[in-house]
Amino acid sequence: MPTSFDYAAHLKSAIRTVPDWPQPGVMFRDITPLLQTPRTFRLLIDVFVHRYMDADVDLIAGLDARGFIIGSVLAYELNLGFVPIRKKGKLPFTTVAEEYELEYGNATVEMHTDACRAGDRVVLVDDLVATGGTMMAGYKLLQKLGAEVVEAAAIIELPELKGGELIRTAGLPLYTVCSFDGE
């Protein structure tokens, strides 16, 4: 008889915690070990593919930089276009910008003004939701261009930083694979 496999626990176990990076008091959740093992990386992508394979979605948007890793592979697997949402000053064409707060500072993200069209249905992807600032900035950028963000998705949620709560309160559904709450 087959046994039940807890994919979320398996993926979570592959995430490394780096204390005090990039500054004291921050517990950085590093996804690179998860990506280095082909079976684990494939499992991660498959989780997202199965979630969105029957969804009415036109584009995947990924947040700089780790959202590019998951988002671009997901877009490829779903045969959809990919929209990069970059840190300020990295895109060569006309852009729209949104400033936001991180758990350890401020930043700005930008997107090309022709990255999506009004009415496009988009899944917004990043590796982690902490304070929710990056995800909300990406959400606002896509809305400025008339896109409908159908869901935000991330590998990790850090509930103690309240970002997931902020995103859900804004009316944006949020899907995460695992969470680190007080760990």
TrEMBL record:
Listed GO MF terms: adenine binding; adenine phosphoribosyltransferase activity; AMP binding
Enzyme class: transferase
Keyword Cytoplasm recorded: yes
GO biological process, one term: purine ribonucleoside salvage
Domain Phosphoribosyltransferase: 34-159
CDD domains noted in UniProt: PRTases_typeI (cd06223)
Pathway(s) where this gene product acts: Purine metabolism; AMP biosynthesis via salvage pathway; AMP from adenine: step 1/1
Chemical reaction(s) catalysed: AMP + diphosphate = 5-phospho-alpha-D-ribose 1-diphosphate + adenine
Its EC number(s): 2.4.2.7
Gene Ontology cellular component terms for the protein in this record: cytoplasm
Superkingdom in the source lineage: Bacteria
Keywords associated with the record: Cytoplasm, Glycosyltransferase, Purine salvage, Transferase
Protein family per UniProt: Belongs to the purine/pyrimidine phosphoribosyltransferase family.
Quaternary structure, from the entry: Homodimer.
Function statement: Catalyzes a salvage reaction resulting in the formation of AMP, that is energically less costly than de novo synthesis.
Designated name of the protein: Adenine phosphoribosyltransferase
Organism: Crenobacter luteus
